[in-house]
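Reagents: none. Just compute today. Short-chain dehydrogenase.
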Amino acid sequence: MASPVVLITGCSSGIGSALCWAFQSKGYRVVATARQVEQLQKLQAAGMTVMTLDVNDPQAVKSVVSSVLATEGKIDVLVNNAGFGQFGPLMDISQDKLQRQFQTNVFAPLALVQQVAPSMKEQGSGLIINMGSISGLVTTPFAGAYCASKAALHSLSEAMRMELAPFNIQVVTIQPGAIASSFGSSAESSLDSVMHSTSWYADLETDIRARAQLSQSAATPSAQFAAALVTQVTQPNPPSVIRLGKKSLWLPWLKRILPDRLMAYLLSRKFGLTELS
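Predicted 3D structure written out:
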Protein backbone atom coordinates (compact mmCIF):
# COMPACT_ATOMS: atom_id res chain seq x y z
CA MET A 1 0.00 0.00 0.00
CA ALA A 2 1.31 3.44 -0.95
CA SER A 3 2.29 5.70 1.92
CA PRO A 4 -0.29 8.36 2.84
CA VAL A 5 0.34 11.89 1.57
CA VAL A 6 0.09 15.00 3.76
CA LEU A 7 0.06 18.58 2.44
CA ILE A 8 1.08 21.15 5.07
CA THR A 9 1.03 24.94 4.79
CA GLY A 10 3.25 27.40 6.64
CA CYS A 11 6.24 25.10 7.07
CA SER A 12 9.12 27.58 7.20
CA SER A 13 9.53 27.29 10.99
CA GLY A 14 7.87 26.51 14.29
CA ILE A 15 4.80 24.32 14.32
CA GLY A 16 4.66 23.81 10.56
CA SER A 17 8.24 22.59 10.31
CA ALA A 18 7.84 20.36 13.37
CA LEU A 19 4.70 18.81 11.89
CA CYS A 20 6.60 17.90 8.73
CA TRP A 21 9.17 15.93 10.73
CA ALA A 22 6.49 14.31 12.89
CA PHE A 23 4.42 13.15 9.92
CA GLN A 24 7.49 11.84 8.10
CA SER A 25 8.42 9.81 11.19
CA LYS A 26 5.02 8.12 10.89
CA GLY A 27 5.72 7.08 7.30
CA TYR A 28 3.85 9.86 5.51
CA ARG A 29 5.00 11.39 2.25
CA VAL A 30 5.21 15.06 3.20
CA VAL A 31 4.56 18.00 0.90
CA ALA A 32 5.79 21.09 2.75
CA THR A 33 4.84 24.57 1.55
CA ALA A 34 5.78 28.13 2.46
CA ARG A 35 5.93 31.52 0.81
CA GLN A 36 9.73 31.35 0.73
CA VAL A 37 10.71 27.90 -0.45
CA GLU A 38 14.39 28.49 0.35
CA GLN A 39 13.45 28.22 4.03
CA LEU A 40 12.48 24.59 3.43
CA GLN A 41 15.92 23.32 2.39
CA LYS A 42 16.37 21.07 5.44
CA LEU A 43 13.01 19.45 4.80
CA GLN A 44 13.88 18.92 1.15
CA ALA A 45 17.25 17.42 2.07
CA ALA A 46 15.37 14.92 4.26
CA GLY A 47 13.38 13.70 1.27
CA MET A 48 10.27 15.82 1.61
CA THR A 49 8.67 17.56 -1.35
CA VAL A 50 8.79 21.34 -0.96
CA MET A 51 6.73 23.89 -2.87
CA THR A 52 6.23 27.65 -2.87
CA LEU A 53 2.76 28.64 -1.73
CA ASP A 54 1.20 31.94 -0.71
CA VAL A 55 -2.10 30.77 0.73
CA ASN A 56 -3.65 34.14 -0.11
CA ASP A 57 -3.07 33.61 -3.84
CA PRO A 58 -6.05 31.62 -5.23
CA GLN A 59 -4.22 30.64 -8.41
CA ALA A 60 -1.20 29.44 -6.42
CA VAL A 61 -3.45 27.35 -4.17
CA LYS A 62 -5.12 25.75 -7.18
CA SER A 63 -1.79 25.14 -8.91
CA VAL A 64 -0.12 23.54 -5.89
CA VAL A 65 -3.04 21.21 -5.19
CA SER A 66 -3.21 20.18 -8.85
CA SER A 67 0.53 19.58 -8.94
CA VAL A 68 0.48 17.43 -5.79
CA LEU A 69 -2.40 15.35 -7.11
CA ALA A 70 -0.59 14.89 -10.43
CA THR A 71 2.72 13.82 -8.87
CA GLU A 72 1.59 12.03 -5.71
CA GLY A 73 -1.75 10.74 -6.98
CA LYS A 74 -3.67 11.77 -3.86
CA ILE A 75 -3.80 13.95 -0.76
CA ASP A 76 -4.80 12.02 2.35
CA VAL A 77 -4.27 14.81 4.88
CA LEU A 78 -4.43 18.59 4.56
CA VAL A 79 -2.96 20.63 7.42
CA ASN A 80 -4.04 24.28 7.34
CA ASN A 81 -1.23 25.63 9.50
CA ALA A 82 -0.28 28.90 7.75
CA GLY A 83 -1.40 31.96 9.66
CA PHE A 84 -0.26 35.06 11.51
CA GLY A 85 -1.32 37.32 14.36
CA GLN A 86 -2.28 40.96 13.91
CA PHE A 87 -2.03 42.47 17.37
CA GLY A 88 -2.84 45.91 18.73
CA PRO A 89 -5.80 47.94 20.00
CA LEU A 90 -8.88 47.62 17.79
CA MET A 91 -9.15 51.40 17.69
CA ASP A 92 -5.79 51.49 15.89
CA ILE A 93 -6.18 48.59 13.44
CA SER A 94 -7.11 49.63 9.91
CA GLN A 95 -9.69 47.86 7.79
CA ASP A 96 -6.90 46.66 5.50
CA LYS A 97 -5.07 45.01 8.39
CA LEU A 98 -8.25 43.41 9.70
CA GLN A 99 -9.11 42.08 6.25
CA ARG A 100 -5.60 40.67 5.85
CA GLN A 101 -5.93 38.93 9.22
CA PHE A 102 -9.16 37.22 8.15
CA GLN A 103 -7.89 36.55 4.64
CA THR A 104 -4.94 34.51 5.93
CA ASN A 105 -6.49 32.86 9.00
CA VAL A 106 -10.04 32.25 7.77
CA PHE A 107 -10.59 32.62 4.04
CA ALA A 108 -7.37 30.89 2.93
CA PRO A 109 -7.95 27.67 4.92
CA LEU A 110 -11.45 27.38 3.45
CA ALA A 111 -10.08 27.94 -0.06
CA LEU A 112 -7.56 25.13 0.44
CA VAL A 113 -10.26 22.77 1.70
CA GLN A 114 -12.41 23.61 -1.32
CA GLN A 115 -9.53 22.64 -3.61
CA VAL A 116 -8.48 19.47 -1.76
CA ALA A 117 -11.81 18.00 -0.62
CA PRO A 118 -13.05 16.93 -4.09
CA SER A 119 -10.14 14.50 -4.47
CA MET A 120 -10.80 13.19 -0.95
CA LYS A 121 -14.46 12.67 -1.82
CA GLU A 122 -13.44 10.77 -4.94
CA GLN A 123 -11.07 8.47 -3.06
CA GLY A 124 -13.61 7.99 -0.27
CA SER A 125 -11.53 9.27 2.62
CA GLY A 126 -9.53 12.20 3.90
CA LEU A 127 -8.49 14.20 6.93
CA ILE A 128 -8.49 17.99 7.22
CA ILE A 129 -6.65 19.59 10.14
CA ASN A 130 -7.31 23.25 10.87
CA MET A 131 -4.93 25.05 13.21
CA GLY A 132 -7.03 27.17 15.52
CA SER A 133 -5.95 28.54 18.89
CA ILE A 134 -7.10 28.89 22.47
CA SER A 135 -7.12 32.58 21.57
CA GLY A 136 -10.26 31.74 19.62
CA LEU A 137 -11.82 30.66 22.91
CA VAL A 138 -10.37 33.22 25.34
CA THR A 139 -10.38 36.75 23.94
CA THR A 140 -7.92 39.19 25.46
CA PRO A 141 -7.32 42.93 25.07
CA PHE A 142 -4.99 43.97 22.26
CA ALA A 143 -5.47 40.71 20.36
CA GLY A 144 -9.04 41.22 19.17
CA ALA A 145 -8.35 40.80 15.46
CA TYR A 146 -6.37 37.61 15.95
CA CYS A 147 -8.78 36.13 18.49
CA ALA A 148 -11.74 36.86 16.22
CA SER A 149 -10.06 35.20 13.24
CA LYS A 150 -9.37 32.01 15.19
CA ALA A 151 -12.92 31.96 16.59
CA ALA A 152 -14.20 32.21 13.01
CA LEU A 153 -11.94 29.36 11.92
CA HIS A 154 -13.26 27.21 14.78
CA SER A 155 -16.82 27.79 13.55
CA LEU A 156 -15.92 27.01 9.95
CA SER A 157 -14.23 23.81 11.10
CA GLU A 158 -17.30 22.76 13.03
CA ALA A 159 -19.51 23.29 9.99
CA MET A 160 -17.02 21.46 7.74
CA ARG A 161 -16.97 18.54 10.16
CA MET A 162 -20.70 18.03 9.77
CA GLU A 163 -20.91 18.78 6.05
CA LEU A 164 -18.00 16.56 4.99
CA ALA A 165 -18.76 13.62 7.29
CA PRO A 166 -21.13 11.93 4.75
CA PHE A 167 -18.15 11.65 2.37
CA ASN A 168 -15.86 10.06 4.99
CA ILE A 169 -13.78 13.23 5.25
CA GLN A 170 -12.83 13.92 8.85
CA VAL A 171 -12.16 17.43 10.16
CA VAL A 172 -10.07 18.07 13.28
CA THR A 173 -9.67 21.47 14.90
CA ILE A 174 -6.43 22.04 16.81
CA GLN A 175 -6.50 24.59 19.62
CA PRO A 176 -2.88 25.00 20.75
CA GLY A 177 -1.83 26.81 23.86
CA ALA A 178 1.64 28.32 24.20
CA ILE A 179 3.91 26.66 21.64
CA ALA A 180 7.53 27.74 21.12
CA SER A 181 7.89 29.31 17.68
CA SER A 182 8.59 32.59 15.93
CA PHE A 183 4.94 33.59 16.37
CA GLY A 184 5.69 36.01 19.19
CA SER A 185 8.31 37.89 17.19
CA SER A 186 6.07 38.24 14.13
CA ALA A 187 3.13 39.20 16.35
CA GLU A 188 5.14 41.94 17.98
CA SER A 189 6.34 43.11 14.57
CA SER A 190 2.69 43.53 13.54
CA LEU A 191 2.49 46.33 16.12
CA ASP A 192 5.13 48.47 14.44
CA SER A 193 2.68 49.99 11.96
CA VAL A 194 -0.18 50.12 14.48
CA MET A 195 1.15 51.79 17.63
CA HIS A 196 1.51 55.57 17.45
CA SER A 197 2.05 58.32 19.98
CA THR A 198 -1.52 59.54 19.37
CA SER A 199 -3.06 56.19 20.30
CA TRP A 200 -5.42 56.12 23.28
CA TYR A 201 -3.23 53.29 24.52
CA ALA A 202 0.23 54.78 23.87
CA ASP A 203 1.07 54.63 27.58
CA LEU A 204 0.39 50.88 27.53
CA GLU A 205 2.73 50.01 24.68
CA THR A 206 4.87 47.81 26.97
CA ASP A 207 1.75 45.86 28.01
CA ILE A 208 0.60 45.55 24.42
CA ARG A 209 3.96 44.21 23.29
CA ALA A 210 3.88 41.78 26.21
CA ARG A 211 0.52 40.48 24.93
CA ALA A 212 2.03 39.89 21.50
CA GLN A 213 4.79 37.78 23.08
CA LEU A 214 2.52 35.98 25.56
CA SER A 215 2.41 32.72 23.60
CA GLN A 216 6.16 32.29 24.09
CA SER A 217 6.04 32.39 27.89
CA ALA A 218 6.78 28.92 29.33
CA ALA A 219 5.92 27.52 25.92
CA THR A 220 5.78 23.86 24.95
CA PRO A 221 8.56 22.93 22.47
CA SER A 222 7.16 22.72 18.94
CA ALA A 223 8.63 19.24 18.33
CA GLN A 224 6.93 17.91 21.48
CA PHE A 225 3.64 19.51 20.42
CA ALA A 226 3.88 18.12 16.89
CA ALA A 227 4.69 14.59 18.02
CA ALA A 228 1.71 14.51 20.38
CA LEU A 229 -0.57 16.00 17.73
CA VAL A 230 0.42 13.59 14.97
CA THR A 231 0.00 10.65 17.33
CA GLN A 232 -3.60 11.71 17.95
CA VAL A 233 -4.64 12.62 14.41
CA THR A 234 -3.26 9.40 12.92
CA GLN A 235 -5.66 7.32 15.01
CA PRO A 236 -8.52 5.72 13.03
CA ASN A 237 -11.05 8.08 14.66
CA PRO A 238 -9.20 11.18 15.88
CA PRO A 239 -10.85 13.61 18.31
CA SER A 240 -12.85 16.42 16.72
CA VAL A 241 -11.03 19.02 18.80
CA ILE A 242 -7.52 18.66 20.19
CA ARG A 243 -6.01 21.02 22.78
CA LEU A 244 -2.30 20.69 23.41
CA GLY A 245 0.47 22.78 24.93
CA LYS A 246 0.84 24.98 27.98
CA LYS A 247 -2.32 26.91 28.93
CA SER A 248 -4.46 25.01 26.40
CA LEU A 249 -6.61 23.39 29.10
CA TRP A 250 -6.71 25.67 32.11
CA LEU A 251 -7.37 28.94 30.26
CA PRO A 252 -10.59 27.71 28.58
CA TRP A 253 -11.57 26.14 31.92
CA LEU A 254 -11.04 29.46 33.67
CA LYS A 255 -13.11 31.23 31.03
CA ARG A 256 -15.91 28.72 31.55
CA ILE A 257 -16.12 28.91 35.34
CA LEU A 258 -15.51 32.59 36.04
CA PRO A 259 -18.25 35.21 35.70
CA ASP A 260 -17.77 37.29 32.54
CA ARG A 261 -17.18 40.53 34.43
CA LEU A 262 -14.54 38.97 36.66
CA MET A 263 -12.74 37.44 33.68
CA ALA A 264 -12.81 40.79 31.88
CA TYR A 265 -11.47 42.59 34.96
CA LEU A 266 -8.61 40.13 35.41
CA LEU A 267 -7.58 40.40 31.77
CA SER A 268 -7.94 44.18 31.77
CA ARG A 269 -5.74 44.41 34.86
CA LYS A 270 -3.13 42.04 33.42
CA PHE A 271 -2.68 44.21 30.34
CA GLY A 272 -2.78 47.59 32.03
CA LEU A 273 -6.26 48.77 31.10
CA THR A 274 -7.35 49.33 34.69
CA GLU A 275 -4.62 51.99 34.91
CA LEU A 276 -6.48 54.06 32.33
CA SER A 277 -9.78 54.01 34.21
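The domain at 5-275 is CATH 3.40.50.720 (Rossmann fold).
Action item: order primers for follow-up constructs.
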